Amino acid sequence: MEPDELVEELRAMRHGAGSPSFGDIAIGVSRVRRERGLTPEQARVGRTTVYDAFRLGRIRLDLELVADIVRALGGSEERALDLSTPGGRVVAPEVQSEGVPVEAGISWRFVAGVLVGCVVLNLAGRVLVDALALPVYLDMVGTAVTAIVLGPWWGALVGLSTNVVGAAPSGPESIPFALVNVAGALAWGYGARRWSLTRSIPRFFVLNVLVALTCSVVAVPILVLLDGGFNGHGTDQVTEAVLALSHSLWASVTVSNVLTSISDKLIAGFVALTVIEGLPRRLRAWAPDDWMGGPQEAPPAVRARSGTPDPV
């Protein structure tokens, strides 16, 4: 059995077990090993190690770990032995058909393409907003895509690059706001990968709102302290309206920015969702394992072998 086929089996079993978190599976694996007579230190397995066992693109899998995961998910001993040989390894070809090494699971060419493409996507959004004088930003769609697909710090790199490159046409005033883009990337990335907030549409909605609030916490002091609350953006009209009522610059900038940021991040987040869903399955696999339900996307044959019913 090829490694990816085995991973699909594990994903289907996890879904059939109610999609427990990787931390819970790690606890279950440790318990199985202790019952086998190992000491707590010997039995311990990290959440990341378990997560990696569910990741497509591997060329090697620790089949002893696979067997223990099957047992931790409630599979029978026969099923565990059927999928593994204790201490064995499954080995796939060293390279993909186009010659890209898969040991790291992803090619640097792909990473570079995503980074450059997402910076361009951010800048295109900024150009659109400037041209139409829209009261949103739309300069973080690429940041969201990168943070979710590659990870939070890759997203932070895209966010930082966007503001640095964007300083050429718009001036250095945009550079301090790189901190906002970085904060958004970290919120999207960690929200997706640590808090499973991309498992469903309602969770994803919450994630985008949290990203918006995170960005506002960073943006408001920059706007007030460096720009006096107004920076020539379409949101200035909202700030002026709130200022007329509250007579407080900090309050007006905060209210204006939060309202605008929530709208902006919801748009950016769901556009990013569309972009990610449009990626080839092999590339989309680098999104969090439980992305929009994750394991239920296993092929029907895998679901049938694992006893997992087809989704309805």
Structural class: mainly alpha
Q: What is the chain-wise order of helices and strands?
A: HHHHEHHEHHHHHHHHH
Mean pLDDT: 81
Radius of gyration: 23 Å
Helix count, DSSP H or I runs of 4 or more residues: 15
Q: What gross morphology would you assign? A: elongated
- CATH architecture heading of the largest domain: Orthogonal Bundle
Proportion of residues in helical segments: 55-70%
CATH structural class of the largest domain? Mainly Alpha
Structural account:
- It comes from Nocardioides currus.
- The chain crosses the membrane at residues 106-124, 136-154, 174-192, 204-226.
- It is a single chain.
- This protein is mainly alpha-helical and 312 residues long.
- It folds into 2 domains: 3-103, no CATH class; 108-284, Arp2/3 complex 21 kDa subunit ARPC3, CATH 1.10.1760.
- Helix content is 65%, strand content 2%.
- It has helices at residues 3-16, 22-35, 40-43, 47-53, 63-72, 77-83, 108-132, 141-149, 152-170, 178-193, 201-227, 236-246, 249-277, 281-284, 300-306, and strands at residues 60-62, 89-91.
- The protein has a two-stranded antiparallel sheet with strand order 1-2.
- α1 (3-16) crosses α15 (300-306), α7 packs antiparallel against α8 and α12 packs antiparallel against α13.
Features:
transmembrane helix; ECF transporter S component; elongated; transmembrane; 65% helix; mainly alpha; 312 residues; disordered C terminus; Arp2/3 complex 21 kDa subunit ARPC3; membrane
